[in-house]
Amino acid sequence: MTDHTFMLDTNILSDLVRNPRGRVQQKIRRHGINAVCMSAIAVSEIRFGLAKRRSEEFSDRVEAALSRIALLDYGDDATFAYASIRDDLQSRGTAIGTTDLFIAAHAKSLDLTLVTNNIREFSRVDGLKVENWLEEDSP
């Protein structure tokens, strides 16, 4: 189990890096840095984007942000959640992207709220708690 409450999606970290005094940073300040974490899956996706971008300055900013956020390994419970979620989504004909499916399974397996700017896709996952910290009225 984890002491964290919120798992940040890739797009939320991207906003944090681009807007270091923006809404995401304000939410992290309010909840505390120990309340947030990221999935190793999302961080893999971020580092792939950095490799493609080839900007040392931007990579340094991203890595500085990541160094403050707990990185959670993808565990066995997440593999079971993945299987269950994928089966459910496929049976309903409402599949989501592969990486998003892994991130959703990871968050759900740990009973964390996934913070994302992609509510439409992640809301298809039954029982997954989601918030968008980029919206003005977010909790």
Tell me about this structure.
With 139 residues, the protein is of the alpha/beta class. It has a single domain, classed as 3-Layer(aba) Sandwich (Rossmann fold), CATH 3.40.50.1010. It is built from seven helices and five strands; from the N terminus they run βααβααβααβαβ. A five-stranded parallel sheet has the order 3-2-1-4-5. α5 crosses α6. The longest helix is centred in the middle third of the chain and has 17 residues. The protein is globular, with a radius of gyration of 15 Å. It starts with 5 loop residues before the first strand and ends in an 8-residue tail after the last strand. The relative contact order is 0.20.
